[in-house]
Amino acid sequence: MFKFIKKAQALMLSVVLATTLTHAQAFAQEQTSTVIEACADLEFKYVIERDGDTLRIGDIDDTTDQVEIDVTEGASEFTPDKFREAYEKAGLKYHQYAQCIFDKAVEEVVPDWFAQGAGVPQACIDQGELTEKLGINGNTTTLASSLILANQAYEVHLLGLTDQFLLHGKVEATESSPVTAKAIIDTSETFRELVKIELSNTAFALDAAFAKLKEMRQAYLMHVQLSCLLDNLKDYRDSLEKLRRAILDMEPRFDSASLTCGG
To answer: What is the mean pLDDT of each successive set of 10 residues along the chain, which is 263 residues long?
Structure first.
């Protein structure tokens, strides 16, 4: 009986530990490698290259995903529409990569504590396994740094895109807005503000996503630990029931016996 009580106490301490480790690493090195490798084909590797009078913007490994723009001096085709095309392609690529990273990270979380296909909690986690799963055993994580690097590359690319528009941009004249150097500068500044907002939103989304991923891992861990605790409490209840039945079976045999000391 005392065995069940001690096991329940140990599990409760494990749950408390899981909820107070607010600075624990989200992923160990081996888990990070699995996630990064699964998304390698979507890695953000956009560049801006000049080949004569042609500007190539896009994925360095996929020429079909590049935007080619004629930037011949005096006859540039780098219009606002071309800027938006290149901008949207880069955004789509980056967000596909970030989405892949978090999707694969979630896949690493769920099977880690639940039986494959059944959705049933695995066996109870002892203190050593708990320490390992929370990533506090000395292993470091590169999941965050990998996405931060991708985010930095995305930032460099978008800012480079606005710089190139400032150098080679073409703004069509209208009756009320003739083509002037100021028109190019104003349009470039509009795009730079657009990029600034996008990068700010991206940084916020990354921070929120990592926070939710961390909460998710701890929530799964607590669920498994509490399920284990519940199972042990059921065993404790069943043991008490067996003890009660045994005592009740003994009662008719000791009609004159007292259950108090000295009675």
So the answer is: 43 38 50 85 91 91 87 89 94 93 80 48 60 50 75 92 92 70 87 92 84 75 74 82 79 60 52
The answer to whether the beta carbons of residues 183 and 177 sit under 8 Å apart is: yes
Asked, for residue 245, whether it belongs to a domain, the answer is: no
Q: Which position has the token pair 């606002």?
A: 80
Residue 132 counted as domain residue:
no
Q: Which residue, among 149, 160, 153, has the nearest Cα to 50 in the 3D structure? A: 160
Tokens encoding 67: 């935007």
Residue 185 counted as domain residue: yes
Record the pTM: 0.68
Contacts (Cβ under 8 Å, ≥6 apart) of 34 = 104, 108
What residue type is assigned to position 69 of the chain? I
Name the region of 172 (left: φ>0; alpha: ψ -120 to 50; beta: rest). Answer: beta
Q: Which domain holds residue 74?
A: 28-122+140-220
On the 0-12 / 13-18 / 19+ scale of CB atoms within 10 A, 160 is: middle
For residue 159, the model assigns a pLDDT of 93
How many domains does the structure of the chain reveal?
Answer: 1
Asked if residue 195 belongs to a domain, the reply is: yes
User: DSSP of 30-98, one letter per residue?
Assistant: HHHHHHHHHTGGG---EEEEEETTEEEEEETT-GGG-EEEE--TTS--B-HHHHHHHHHHHHHHHHHHH
